[in-house]
Amino acid sequence: MNLSPSSTAPDGPAASFRHELYPYRGDAQYLEGTLGFIREALDADEAIIVAVPPDRASLLRDELPDEPQVTFVEAATAGVNPGRHVAAWTAWMSERGEGGRPVRGIGETPWRQARSAAHLSELRYHEWLLNRAFANSSAWSMLCPYDIAGSDEDALRSVSRCHPEIRKDGRSLRNDGFLGVEEYAFDPLADACDPFQELVYTRGDLSAVRSKVAQCAADAGVPAEGRSKLAVAVTEIATNSVRHGGGQGTLRTWTQDTTFLCEFRDAGHIPDVLAGRTRPTADQLGGRGLWLAHQLCDLVEIRSTPERGTTIRLHMDVPQ
285 and 206 share a domain? Predict the structure, then answer.
């Protein structure tokens, strides 16, 4: 990684939002970087939000007794699906940043708890999307600790591509390996596991889509509660295919390890990369289908380009 000193964030649309990666090794180094970040915020009378794993939260709490500017939040309340995390940070920021008060966040993604290659890919994608979601939030900055113990260079390089800056020796350094707010390339979706079930649907086929998914999910061992959630999610996604994807789509379902997947393909294009990740407003017309899918499913993968159309995969965990 090529690092050069910078007193500000990189040029471009993300310049107002400071988004720093902090590679660390061991508890002492963890505390050195995070406490330094917090001290900067305290000196500037900024609010601090800490969303880290429980063991890391305990380390910080021991060093910050009764500090009113620091708020610890349970990161687990956002759920395992990274597609819910932009909305969670937006809510936490709004609560602590009343009146335009600057807010700093420490958000440590649980990389080692990734459930699958797809989950790991979506965690990285979420880190990059933060730059788009908060590009114009000049009063907002985030430090992302990353435990390099046992991590290889390829993994660190993949994560660093999502961060405009890297913290080292108490300083914020420009990360020349950052892809930029417009340049992220999707990780390609893995092939569907064979055998899979397939159904081409069009207008009037929503009942057939729901029935197909319900039967396949039951056969895969998805509990009744999960099947009920899927019924809502697949209705929303299939309806969007018909309305915005050329009038028809293709459904595939299969089981992979301990996950049941529903894949929807159509000819439409979703230009907004944040679609479904921000909470719809009360007066918003449309746009709730993807939001509901993210709230109901354990993971949602979206790949959409004008040339290839849209593929959406809904994941539901199957109890072992």
Answer: yes
